[in-house]
Design brief:
The complex is a heterodimer. By secondary structure, chain A is α+β, with helices and mostly antiparallel strands. Chain A has four helices and eight strands. Chain B contains two helices and no strands. The radius of gyration of chain B is 18 Å and the shape is rod-shaped.
């Protein structure tokens, strides 16, 4: 690495060095420029992949953990909350971007928890906050279809393991005061334009003649196959019961696992 | 390109290497801050919603 200075500014140390200098002083050839450009491109792509497939997760997890702490909700006791059978309390919809709930899937770990925000804008909500609630769809516990979206890969990937959910698995939403426990009924792989999966009665396209909804349902949407946007994985839910956060935690979160009622 | 850059930088090899490291860090910062998030819009696996 001594071939740095221009010829003559330094005492030549010997013919060997001079020969080396001569070689490195070759004019910039087209091939050399092309090879430098290609190498730069390769490094750029590699760095982008590291950023996209790993770093966005690290940032999102940190950010989501901070959001959970900033909620400032009263901590719940470890008691099992009594399941309530009456009509669930339905909150009004929140302005876009507001984190108004937390999303829990005990199948993914007893302490699985992701912020739940209003809206499904990719950059503002799904990249930055966690799980997004489709505007205009039912709120938790409401008659209709409580629909949410989240990343399956990258940006914290809250729904990375959506394919591991089994029929009957609890999916739980918490607001400041209430728990809403849903259960998985089935899943489907659809195309991105099949918006009927988030309609109040799944299967009815917008504008289609639809009977008055009577059931309290839910939909989780994520991309499919992983690392592709060709299709969407939809897991359908059915409302089971609600409980008060002041009473403790739902039984399903204490058990921390799967389908046991 | 890089050979020319190396020759254009002042100082001994260690100083050159340090300058290059700083340049690389600056380029990386620009990428992470602006270029990568923009590029992510065009990645096929980042879209998880259904829409008309």
């Amino acid at each position: 690495m001594s071939e740095n200075d221009t010829a003559g500014t330094r005492e030549p140390a010997g013919t060997a060095v001079r020969a080396k200098k001569h070689i490195s002083r070759k004019p910039i050839t087209v091939a050399r420029v092309i090879s430098d450009v290609l190498l730069t491109g390769a490094v750029f792509i590699a760095l982008f992949l590291v950023w996209q497939l790993w770093w966005t997760d690290v940032v999102a997890w940190q950010h989501q953990a901070a959001i959970m702490e900033d909620l400032g909700w009263p901590t719940v006791s470890e008691e099992i909350a009594t399941p309530e059978t009456g009509d669930p309390p339905v909150l009004p919809e929140f302005p876009e971007g507001e984190v108004w709930g937390t999303f829990h899937v005990p199948r993914w770990g007893a302490d699985n928890a992701t912020p739940l925000a209003a809206g499904v804008d990719r950059v503002r909500i799904l990249d930055a906050l966690g799980v997004g609630h489709y505007p205009g769809t039912a709120m938790p516990g409401e008659v209709g279809n409580f629909s949410v979206a989240a990343h399956r890969t990258t940006f914290g990937r809250p729904f990375h393991f959506i394919h591991e959910l089994e029929v009957g698995d609890p999916v739980i939403v918490r607001t400041e005061e209430y728990w809403y426990v849903y259960r998985v009924t089935h899943w489907e792989i659809v195309y991105p334009w099949q918006v009927e999966v988030v309609s109040p009665i799944p299967g009815y396209a917008p504008g289609e003649d639809m009977p008055e909804p009577t059931e309290r349902l839910g939909s989780m949407t994520s991309c499919h196959p992983m690392y592709s946007a060709r299709q969407r994985w939809i897991t359908f839910l059915e409302f089971d019961y609600w409980a008060r956060a002041a009473d403790g935690i739902p039984r399903e979160m204490a058990e921390g696992q799967g389908a046991t009622p | 390109m890089y050979a020319a850059l190396w020759r254009a930088l002042p100082g001994p090899a260690a100083v050159k290497a340090l300058i290059l490291l700083a340049l690389f860090a600056a380029a990386l910062w620009v990428c992470v801050e602006w270029v990568f998030p923009w590029l992510a819009n065009y990645m096929p696996f980042n879209d998880s919603t259904v829409h008309g």
